[in-house]
Design a protein that fits this description.
- The structure is a homodimer of 118-residue chains.
- Chain A has 118 residues and is mostly helical.
- Helix content of chain A is 79%, strand content 0%.
- In chain A, α2 packs antiparallel against α3.
- At the A-B interface, α1, α2 and α3 of A face α1, α2 and α3 of B.
Chain lengths: 118, 118
């Protein structure tokens, strides 16, 4: 394989990676949604330990575990931020809804913004 | 879906992510191998721009482009380190081989270590 062919393959792999990361993000968002209802915290160290253990167990190389962990630290950081956003926008919506209940409909309607694009 | 079910799905996605990242790493390693032969540099800013553009074009959310870019900065850092390793071990092997040519077989034989696990 030439460098050019390998790069075409890498670009294809990157598109698949984006798809998987997006699906993972949607699942994290849904968990954030459920956490808002149960008042579970976003940061759960035991759950994160399980994620790292799962990743290391799946690793057959050539990346050393430590390098894969570096990538996952960043993935988890980003997912945690997304989950926090989801939680915050939901609490904001709930607060506005309660306020809306007391003051009328207007406040509730303005809370439909999700803030996902920030 | 419950939190538990979503986590099972995330663990499955993570195993698929590790597989794709490993395949991407193997391709980067092969490029490192080819670069050693052509004396191309590891860091190629124009190629990296193409990678980021490809990733952003593939992104349909929910992760904002900036967050996906954060993840990719880490992925590229790790791949670059792997490629540097590949290049260094190859140059080391070549140097040892030349030395081996002058001094005999012993030096060439000791150069088969790849250093990938460091």
């Amino acid at each position: 394989m030439t460098i050019e062919e390998l790069r075409i393959r890498i670009d294809e792999l990157d598109r698949q990676l984006v798809e998987l990361l997006s699906e993972r993000a949607r699942a994290a968002q849904m968990i954030g949604h459920l956490k808002a209802a149960t008042s579970l915290p976003v940061y759960e160290p035991n759950r994160e330990k399980i994620i790292y253990a799962n990743v290391r167990a799946a690793n057959k190389g050539p990346l050393p575990d430590i390098e894969l962990t570096h990538i996952y630290e960043r993935i988890i950081d980003v997912m945690r931020a997304l989950q926090r956003n989801e939680l915050a926008s939901q609490r904001h919506a709930q607060a506005a809804e309660q306020e809306g209940g007391a003051l009328g409909h207007a406040a509730g309607e303005s809370s439909s913004e999700t803030g996902k694009k920030s």
